[in-house]
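Sequence in, structure out.
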Amino acid sequence: MIDNLQLIKSLLNFEDKGDFYQLIILKRKKDQPQDQRDSHQSVRTIKTYCIESVEYLEKRYDEIKQLCEIFKARAYIHVQKQNHADVSLDMMIDLAQRIKDGHNNQKNLFDSVVGQIKTKEKRWIVDVDTKDHLYLKKVIECIEYLEPMVFKNLDTGETESKIEAVIPTKNGFHLITKKFNVLEFKKKYPEIDIQKKNPTLLYLPNSLME
């Protein structure tokens, strides 16, 4: 089991009315036994949540974990904040275009817009696909020394860390970071994937740890 609730809670902030983070429970084809794999879907969404407060996440957490156990699924959460007002406006625009194009089934409109709209926080996920802590340390040091440098104190030259959290995954870690020079990073670590709008792992059940 991997339970990242406490790490995730430290990343959430709700400054404006309507702020939320999207949480998704996903059943991945490759996580299922060979004879139970859906031949058509590589990933199936079991349920989504709009996390509008830390209290709401805590209240729903047992339910989220139970769904993961029952469906052999993973819970992921976007750490890039969104706002219902922005989503609503984009839904109106998208809805009009869909109707114009002859699409009358709007079942997945909300999730579609949330997946495309610009977020209110610019956080990236650096997917380090190894449990090697020495390698992880070198990756973190590389990111910290890349531009742009953000200064906490101009008088002392003290800089602010670009690493907001280190999130354990099944095969390694997700580094939640501020923006940095991707071109320079890729020169040293071309094999590492940088995800600019993907979710990070919240919960992985025991049934998927084998």
